[in-house]
What we know:
Chain A is an alpha/beta fold. Chain A has helices spanning 3-12, 17-35, 89-96, 139-146, 164-170, 204-214, 237-244, 262-274, 293-308, 327-338, 341-353, 359-383, 399-402, 407-412, 418-422, 451-460; strands spanning 38-41, 58-62, 100-105, 153-158, 173-176, 196-201, 248-252, 281-285, 386-390, 427-435, 438-446. Chain A has an 11-stranded mixed β-sheet with strand order 1-3-2-4-6-5-10-11-9-7-8, sandwiched between helices. In chain B, a hairpin with a 2-residue loop joins strand 1 (78-79) and strand 2 (82-83). Chain B has a domain at 1-40: Histone, subunit A (Orthogonal Bundle), CATH 1.10.20. Chains A and B meet through helix 9, helix 10, helix 11, helix 12 and helix 14 of A and helix 1 and helix 2 of B.
Amino acid sequence: MRIKEYLRKVEKGEILPSKEIPRIVEKLDKLNEKYSCFITLNKNPRITSKKGRLRGIPVVIKDCICTKGLRTTSGSKILENYFPVFNATIVKKIEEEGGIIVGKTSMDEFGFGTFCTNCAFNLPKNPHDITRSAGGSSGGAAVALAMSDLPLLSIAESTGGSISCPASFCGVYGLTPTYGLVSRYGLIDYSNSLDKIGVMGKSAWDCALGLSVIAGRDSNDQTSIGEEKDYTRFVNKKYIEKNISGKIIGVPKEYFGKGVDKQVKKIVMNAIKKYESLGVKIKEISLPYTKYALSAYYVIALAESSTNLSKFCGLRYGLATEIKGNADEYFSSVRTKGFGKEAKRRILLGTYIRMKGYRNKYYLKALKVRKLIIEDFKKAFEKCDVLMAPTMPFIAPKFNEIKLLTPAQQYASDILTVAPNLAGLPMINVPVGKINGMPVGLHIIGNHFEEGEILSFAGAIKW
Amino acid sequence: MDIEKVAKIARINLDENEKKEFEKELKEVLKIFSELEEVNTTNVEPAFNVIRIINISRKDEVKPSLRIKDVLKNSKHAEKNYFKGPRII
Lengths: 463, 89
C-alpha cells in the first residue's frame, strides 16, 4: 500500500494505527531476518493519535540520528549501547506530525562506505538479489522500503552520496536536500560541511511529504537556514503540467564518460529523452572540474570526520573500558577496540592531511577546488533548470565483487554523486529501469533550494 | 609517511600488520589526492561552506536543559555528578 492511500484510510477510520502498527512491526521483523535492514527494530513503538501530516505512518530512521530512549549506534561498536536522552529535531518534528518511529536502519559505520559492507552489525542485502549490495551508506534505509509494499517513510542521511547510491541500487526514490535545509541537531556527524538529512520513499510524493515535515530552520542548528514549505504541491499533476513545459535539462557530458556502464548510460539517456514529450528541452553541458571532485570530496570528508570522531574516547558516552594508564593510553585503548577498520582508515587519513605541512597541500587546496566545482554548477544553472545524469555508474555489485576492490577503487565508485554533494545541491534518485532485474537510477540535480523543481521533474513521469 | 606518528596523534593503536597494510593503502589514496595539485587555484577563496551562512544568534536566556542524571546515563564511569576520566597529569 502507498502512503497516500494509507493516510486516506487512517483519515476515514478504516485503518487504526494502534492495530496496524504492531502488525507492520511484526512483518518488518520477519523481513529483517532475510534482508538485515534494521540495527534496532522498535518493537513497542509509541503510537500517538496526533492528527498531523504523518498521522499513523510508520517511519524508519537511519541509525546515525538520535532517537530518545531508542538505541542509536551509527553502525559502530563504539556506540553499541548508546541510548540517546534527547530526540534529534527531525525526530521531534516527525512525532509531532503523528509519525511513528518503528526502527533504526543499518548503515556503514558512521556512514563510511559506498556499499554498506563496512557495518559493525547488520549487513543489509539488496531485496532484488540478496547476493548484491544495498548501496551505502544508508543501505538499510533503502532496503526497508524495497523489501515490501508496506507504507513506510524512510529518513536517511548523505555526506557524499549516501542517499542517492542505495536508492539507486534498491530502486527507490531518494531525496538529498540542499545543505542547510534540514536541521542536523541530533545527527551523529560525519563531515559537518557536507552532512545532509534527507528522505527516501516509494514515490516523489512520499519524499515531498517527508521533506515538508523535516525541513526548516532550527535554533539548535546554526547552519540550518531552510524555510518550511509544503513540497507536495510541486508533485501535483496540475502544477507539473503548468510549470515543466519550456524548462531546460542540462546533461553534463562528464557524467557519461569512461567508467559508466554502457547499459546504464543507455537506460538513463532514454529516460531523459522522455521529458521531451512534456515540452522540455535537453542541452548538453560541461562541468570541467568534475574530474577533481572525488579527491576534493574525500580530502574534506576525511579531514572533518577525523576531528568529529575524536569525541569517542570512552568518557561521556559510548564504549568504555577499565580506566588504566594515562589519558592517551586510555583513549587509544577504547578507540582501538571500538572503531572498525574503515573508520580507523579514515581517521588515519584525515589526521594525516590535517598535519602541519600537509594542511595547505591537501585540505585547503580541496576547499579551493570545491569553490571551483560550485562555480561550475552555478554556471550550468544559468543555462538550464535541472541537471540529469546516471546516479551510479553501475548496478549494485555482488558482495564477492566488492571484496576484491581496494579502498581507492571503492572510493572511486562515488564519482557521480560526490560533486553535487560537495556543492550542497539538492538531488533525487528516480528508479527508471532495470538491467537483469537490478534497478538503474536517474539522478536529477537542482540549484540550491530548488527541491520543488527536482521533485516536479521526478514526479512528472510514471516509470 | 610516518604511520606510527599519525596513529599516535589519532589515538589509535596499530599492530605491525595493520601498520604495513594501512601504510600501503593510505599511500595509494594520497597519490590520487595529489592530482589536486594540477588545478590552478590562484586567487580562489576556499569554500569552507557551500552557501553563505548568516550568523544566527539567540538571546542569552537560561532555558531548561538535560537533567544531570540523564547526561550521565550513557557513561560507564560516572561518579556523583561527574564524569570520571584517566589521569591527565
